[in-house]
C-alpha cells in the first residue's frame, strides 16, 4: 500500500508537470466549460421555462456542474489512450513500480483537474447570477456529490481508454457524452419530454445528481412524483457507488491484461 501511494503520487506529479508545460488542453477545457454555460445561460435561456417559475440560470448551473463531471470522461480516455499509443504504459509496466500506481495516479490527477474546473464554473455561475441558497452543510454535500460522481466517471473513462487504445476510437466514444448528458434533467425538465423518454431521463445517473444538488443548493428544480426523483439525494450516492463497483474492477483487470 505504501509503494502504491508513493508511486501513484509520482504519476500524479507527472500529469501536473504536463499541464504546466503544455497548458493548452487545460485552458481549452476551462474555456469550453465556460462557453457552454454562457451559451445556455444567455443565448438559449430566454426560451426556457423553469417549472414553478424562477430564473433559468439558477436552474441551469447545477446541471452545468454535473455536465462538467460527465465531460471529464473524454479527457480521461484521451490521456489513457495517448499513453498506450506512445508506449508509455508499456514502459510503466516494465519498471519496478506498483502495478496500481498508473491508474491511481491518473485518477488523482483527474480529480485535481475536476476540482479546478468546478471552481471556475462556480465562479462563472456567480458572475451570471447563480448562488447557493442552501446551508453551508448542504452546499458542501452538494459539492461532495458532484465529486463522487466525477470519481465514478473517471473509472469509466479509464476503462474505456484502455479498451479503445487509440485516439480514433476515443473520439468515437466521446460522442456518447452528449446524448447521455442531454438525455437528463441537466438542461430541461423530463416532464417536457415524451413520457417514455422522460422516464429514461429521470433514471439517468446524471439526473439524480442534478436533482439532488438543485435541492441542496436551494435552486429551482423539477416537480415529479416518481420515486427516483423524490429520492434523488439517496440515488446520487447509490449510482456512483454502483458505477464504481462495475468499472473499477473492469479497469484493473483490463490494465493487467494489456500485454497478453
What is the topological layout?
Elements: H1 2-21, H2 24-44, H3 56-85, H4 88-94, H5 101-128, H6 136-164, H7 167-174, H8 177-182, H9 195-202, H10 205-217, H11 227-230, H12 232-256
Helix pairs in contact: 1-5, 2-3, 2-5, 3-5, 3-6, 3-7, 3-10, 5-6, 6-10, 6-12, 10-12
Notable traits:
single chain; Nod_factor_ABC_transporter; mainly alpha; cell membrane; globular; 0% strand; 12 helices; 77% helix; 260 residues
Give a written overview of the molecule.
The chain is an all-alpha fold. The protein has one domain (2-256). It contains twelve helices and no strands. The chain has helices at residues 2-21, 24-44, 56-85, 88-94, 101-128, 136-164, 167-174, 177-182, 195-202, 205-217, 227-230, 232-256. α1 crosses α5. The longest helix has 30 residues, at 56-85. The radius of gyration is 19 Å and the shape is globular. The two termini are 25 Å apart. The model has no long low-confidence stretch (mean pLDDT 87).
Q: Summary?
A:
Pfam families: ABC2_membrane. Belongs to the ABC-2 integral membrane protein family. With 260 residues, this protein is mainly α.
Listing every helix as H and every strand as E from the N terminus to the C terminus, the arrangement reads HHHHHHHHHHHH
Q: Flag low-confidence runs.
A: none
Query: Rg, please?
Result: 19 Å
End-to-end Cα distance, whole Å, is: 25 Å
Beta fraction: under 5%
Overall mean confidence score, pLDDT: 87
Helical content stands at over 70%
Q: What is the overall silhouette?
A: globular
The biggest sheet, with number of strands, parallel, antiparallel or mixed sense and barrel status, is: none
Our count of domains comes out at: 1
Structural class: mainly alpha
Oligomer status: single chain
Count helical runs.
12
Beta strand count: 0
Subcellular location: Cell membrane; Membrane
Membrane topology: Multi-pass membrane protein
Protein name: Transport permease protein
Keywords: Antibiotic resistance, Cell membrane, Membrane, Transmembrane, Transmembrane helix, Transport
Amino acid at each position: 500500500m505504501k509503494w502504491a501511494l508513493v508511486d501513484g503520487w509520482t504519476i500524479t506529479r507527472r500529469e501536473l508537470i504536463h499541464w504546466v508545460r503544455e497548458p493548452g488542453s487545460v485552458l481549452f477545457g476551462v474555456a469550453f466549460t465556460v462557453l457552454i454555460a454562457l451559451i445556455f445561460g444567455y443565448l438559449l435561456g430566454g426560451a426556457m421555462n423553469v417549472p414553478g417559475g424562477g430564473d433559468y440560470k439558477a436552474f441551469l448551473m447545477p446541471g452545468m456542474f454535473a455536465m462538467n463531471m460527465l465531460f471529464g470522461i473524454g479527457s480521461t480516455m484521451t490521456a489513457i489512450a495517448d499513453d498506450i499509443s506512445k508506449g508509455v504504459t508499456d514502459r510503466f509496466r516494465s519498471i519496478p513500480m506498483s502495478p496500481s500506481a498508473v491508474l491511481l495516479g491518473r485518477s488523482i490527477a483527474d480529480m485535481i483537474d475536476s476540482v479546478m474546473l468546478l471552481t471556475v464554473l462556480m465562479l462563472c455561475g456567480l458572475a451570471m447570477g447563480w448562488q447557493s441558497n442552501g446551508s453551508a452543510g448542504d452546499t458542501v454535500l452538494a459539492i461532495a456529490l458532484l465529486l463522487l460522481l466525477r470519481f465514478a466517471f473517471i473509472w469509466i473513462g479509464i476503462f474505456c481508454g484502455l479498451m479503445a487504445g487509440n485516439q480514433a476510437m476515443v473520439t468515437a466514444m466521446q460522442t456518447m457524452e452528449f446524448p447521455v448528458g442531454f438525455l437528463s434533467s441537466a438542461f430541461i425538465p423530463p416532464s417536457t419530454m415524451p413520457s417514455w423518454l422522460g422516464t429514461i431521463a429521470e433514471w439517468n445517473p446524471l439526473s439524480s445528481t442534478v436533482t439532488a444538488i438543485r435541492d441542496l443548493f436551494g435552486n429551482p428544480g423539477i416537480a415529479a412524483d416518481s420515486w427516483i426523483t423524490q429520492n434523488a439525494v439517496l440515488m446520487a450516492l447509490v449510482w456512483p457507488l454502483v458505477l464504481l463497483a462495475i468499472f473499477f474492477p473492469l479497469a484493473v483487470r483490463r490494465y493487467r491484461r494489456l500485454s497478453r
